[in-house]
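Hi there,

I know you've been waiting on this one. I reran it after we fixed the sequence typo, so this is the corrected version. Both the input and the resulting structure follow.
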Amino acid sequence: MVNEGQVIDTVVNESYAVKPSLIESLKNAIQPETIANKIGMDKDTLINISLYGAIGFIMGFSWLKEGVCAMSDNFEVGFFKVLTDLKMITAEDAVKLLASYHESDVDQIDDFLLSEGILDQESLLEALSEYYQVPSFDVVGYFFETHLLHMFPKSMLLRNEMIPLQVDENMMIMIAATPDNPDFLSEIGEQVSYDIRFHVGVARDICDAVKEYYDKADTQDDQDQDIRKEHI
């Protein structure tokens, strides 16, 4: 009989992502009762041992390894684990959602959760903050200072899904969709000499804000100059 420790070790040491060809069989054929019977564990115990356990049972054993491929990282598993820890979804739902996400045409997992109505903006930001262990920030409706954006190439901000929020003496706060990216500090350091503190935000909203405030910055400056001339 498999115990919980073995399940978690399996997932930590050997994570898998489902290939699209296997998604439908996972969703329709692999149910908690089926897995529970297969390994000799009752359904409630299976579901309650956390997302790592659930995904471990479904993806970590040899009888299901055919048709799966290694994950490039553990973000998806870790993030869904956070969602279950925060009781935003159940472990059983998490497994089905992970399969549905891979089956969908949506590139970003946060976009998927928002578009499917699984999470609202506030809950998503809370979960991202918990996962990355940095404060979150909702960029929607915030008026960014265009001169801060112009300290960086627009292509860099969009590529890295980041936007500068504010400067306080020698420190700059940068909002990023993946604030744990190890390359960010060196790339930012090529443009500015501030100490950088990261907040996390939603990727789509960050890129929309960069396009809005970067592109209209020059137009706004021209309008301000025209207003000043009218008062001279």
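Quick highlight: The two ends are 85 Å apart (CA to CA).

Best,
R. S.
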